[in-house]
Amino acid sequence: MKLEYPIRFEPILKERIWGGEKLTTVFNKGAKKSGIGESWELSDVDGDISTVTNGPLEGKTLKELIQTFKGKLVGERVFKTFGTNFPILIKYIDAKTPLSIQVHPSNELAKIRHNSFGKNEMWYIMEAEKDAELIVGFSKELTQESYKSKLDEGKILEVLNAETISKGDTFYIPTGRVHAIGAGVVLAEIQQTSDVTYRIYDYKRVDAKTGKERELHTELALDAIDYKLHDSYKTSYSLKENESSKLVHSPYFKTNIIHLNGGITKDYSSLDSFVIYMCVEGNAEIICDDVTYQLNLGQTILLPAVINKVELLGNDTKLLEVYL
Fold first, then answer.
1. Where are the beta strands (DSSP E) in 84-132?
2. 251: which residues sit within 8 A by CB, 6+ positions away?
3. 32-36, 247-251, 304-308 — which is least confidently predicted?
4. What are the boundaries of each domain within the chain?
5. Which pLDDT score, from 0 to 100, does residue 1 have?
6. Sheet strands (E) in 220-253
7. Which residue in 34, 82, 233, 258 is deepest, having the highest Cβ count within 10 Å?
8. How confident is the model at residue 246 (pLDDT cuts 50, 70, 90)?
9. Three-state SS for 146?
10. Is residue 199 annotated as a catalytic residue, yes or no?
11. pLDDT tens digit string along 148-171?
12. Above 90 in pLDDT, residue 214?
């Protein structure tokens, strides 16, 4: 089986209480229902493993690819660390109404409690309605006791840091940082492969299936939260045309942004990792071995580690470039 080509996967669409219609109407995800909040573009989460939709590997799952091709797919260094587990989960998110206030446990806590990775993640804002906000961290330093008091009094929103956002804003959300996506936001999310979330506040919303308020994870969250006040929560970056500009480089993933105006050649021969492209603005063409692959707004594609060079073409296009 041939591996040396850019691989597409079938999006896994998730209905959410806060989801909207933009993943279908703007990003052409083909959902037959409304309220789609997430499109899982590349996933190795149990029960939600991505399936290839193009080329000679069509119909194979991401897990099958790793088991067959090992380091040739993900990189020898990556395979040595993670084995047959793909380390990154890639999503697009459409929040028509606010998400719950939540926090993710560290690798250590997640391993003990859930036999899972933790969930360090980042957001890149693709669309934001006027005055749209995110909640990231606290607006004042707290202790576990003062946090619990605010929560019990129903005043937790008073001590959360709200950030008014615009297109192109980027945030890194390490484990322990309270956060929530506000209404009127579409974003790209890159995270560790984990689906462990502790919900700490949810505006008293009722689950349509149960008729009850959605479950909170108050006690689990207490020793998972970082209560410190940080100087800044937004990631600053410099955007240069036809170059890979650094966004977030963490121990769990590295993400750059490429602002394409014309064409560039990317050489990954020394990287020893897979590369993921997410098209967050405009449309691009990826040329690999003289074959052209179209990448449209809201689409994602995986370059196996054995691919050393590709040419990227675009006109005022922005791609997220993700690797380990």
1. 88-95, 101-103, 121-128
2. none
3. 32-36
4. 12-222, 244-323
5. 73
6. 244-249
7. 258
8. very high
9. helix
10. yes
11. 999 999 999 999 999 999 999 999
12. no
Which two tokens mark 227? 């209560």
Q: Do 12-222 and 244-323 agree at the fold level? A: yes
Q: What separation in angstroms does the CA of 69 have from each of 2, 51, 56, 79, 80?
A: 10, 15, 14, 10, 13
Determine the Cα–Cα distance for residues 81 and 85; give it in Å rounded to an integer. 9
What average pLDDT score do residues 260-285 get?
97
Contact 243, 258 (CB under 8 A): yes
Q: What share of the chain has pLDDT > 90, as a percent?
A: 88
Query: Which CATH homologous superfamily contains domain 244-323?
Result: Jelly Rolls (2.60.120.10)
CA distance to 122, 131, 132, per residue, from 71 (Å): 25, 45, 42
Amino acid at 272: D
The pLDDT assigned to 276 comes to 98
Q: What is residue 207's predicted lDDT score, i.e. its pLDDT?
A: 80
Pairing of strands 179-181, 170-173: unpaired
pLDDT at 31 > cutoff 80: no
| Active-site choice (16, 113, 199, 205) | 199
Distance CA 137, CA 141 (A): 10
Q: Which fold has domain 12-222?
A: Jelly Rolls (2.60.120)
What average pLDDT is seen over the chain? 95
pTM comes to 0.95
| Alpha carbon distance 185, 235 (integer Å) | 17
Helix then strand then coil, in percent of the chain rounded to 5, is: 15, 40, 45
